[in-house]
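Quick one, tokens below:
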């Protein structure tokens, strides 16, 4: 086994620096020196739910540099800048995998952390570390022009909103509303605008109206204002709902026009919807999560070609506890990214 340094959960004491084991490179593996790793709300949730009985190293959206190659790797060279997301393997033979939708693998994809390695059964440890070993097929060359720090959140937040935008054929002539302006929402706005859609932001208060317009949105609706919501009834072809807490979907379904779609990507728990709320207007309710390999590569190239990157705040990895606390308070606009280079000193 090879070793590296990272931030590992230790129960009630939170994250502590630790020596981590990585597998020796298999024939189609690459070793990646992790330079930047984004923080996601799912990292926070994993830490809150951690029982201490299994190893936990969070982090599933990161960029870095290839440092070593397995003997059969053909797609990368040492020194290439790459990105890795929240899926690092899949069965590769089910209908979803064959369709390039490894995120929906029938045998469940291997997650970047907290997953089960398909070869040796070990628990995967994530990108809050200085090195990661991954199959070359699940690493992506970072296109020229993409800042590696800012590109990291594209590998989770970005692809999560990109897949429904593409699946719903968002582009010129489409009217899109984005509910919630956080890590997911602000990227949904930027991508919808870059795709050519007329884009509106829906938020609980007026506080983020200026930010919404800075990001490219043409309109802003306060969801707590019943007059504004009534005026916007049936105004949109696509509504992307990025709110992570439980909430009533009916007000947002009313904003969807004839044959339009409400795509819920923020909250993945149980919901209740009256069929008549879908029936009137032939509306559709959908969801999405992560993305397959073709869509992820497409997203990275699109962002490079159109200068689309998330708004980030970079912190040294030693300040991970501060970042997690602030994220829990929604004190970030709009995504934290950890600079992992300080782990060299910790090692």
């Amino acid at each position: 086994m090879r070793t590296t340094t990272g931030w590992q959960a230790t129960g009630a004491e939170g994250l502590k620096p630790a020596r981590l084991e990585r597998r020796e490179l298999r024939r189609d593996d690459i070793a990646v020196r992790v330079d930047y790793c984004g923080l996601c709300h799912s990292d926070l949730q994993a830490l809150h739910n951690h029982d201490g009985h299994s190893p936990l190293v969070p982090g599933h959206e990161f960029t870095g540099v290839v440092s070593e190659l397995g003997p059969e790797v053909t797609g990368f060279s040492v020194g290439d800048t790459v990105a890795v997301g929240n899926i690092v393997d899949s069965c590769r033979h089910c209908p979803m995998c064959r369709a390039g939708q490894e995120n929906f693998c029938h045998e469940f994809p291997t997650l970047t952390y907290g997953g089960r390695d398909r070869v040796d059964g070990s628990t995967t440890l994530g990108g809050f570390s200085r090195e990661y070993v991954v199959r070359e097929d699940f690493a992506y060359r970072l296109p020229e022009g993409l800042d590696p720090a800012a590109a990291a959140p594209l590998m989770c937040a970005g692809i999560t909103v990109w897949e429904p935008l593409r699946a719903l054929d968002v582009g010129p002539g489409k009217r899109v509303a984005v509910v919630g302006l956080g890590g997911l929402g602000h990227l949904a706005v930027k991508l919808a605008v870059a795709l050519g859609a007329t884009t509106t932001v829906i938020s609980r208060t007026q506080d983020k109206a200026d930010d919404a317009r800075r990001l490219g949105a043409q309109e802003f609706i306060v969801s707590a204002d019943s007059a504004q919501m009534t005026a916007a009834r049936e105004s949109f072809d696509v509504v992307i709902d990025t709110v992570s807490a439980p909430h009533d979907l009916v007000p947002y379904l009313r904003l969807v026009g004839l044959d339009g779609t409400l795509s819920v990507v923020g909250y993945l728990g149980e919901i209740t919807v009256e069929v008549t709320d879908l029936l009137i207007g032939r509306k559709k309710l959908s969801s999405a999560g992560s993305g397959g390999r073709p869509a992820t590569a497409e997203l990275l190239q699109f962002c490079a070609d159109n200068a689309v990157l998330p708004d980030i705040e970079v912190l040294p990895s030693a300040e991970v506890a501060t970042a997690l606390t602030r994220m829990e308070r929604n004190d970030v606009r709009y995504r934290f990214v950890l600079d992992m280079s300080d782990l060299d000193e910790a090692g």
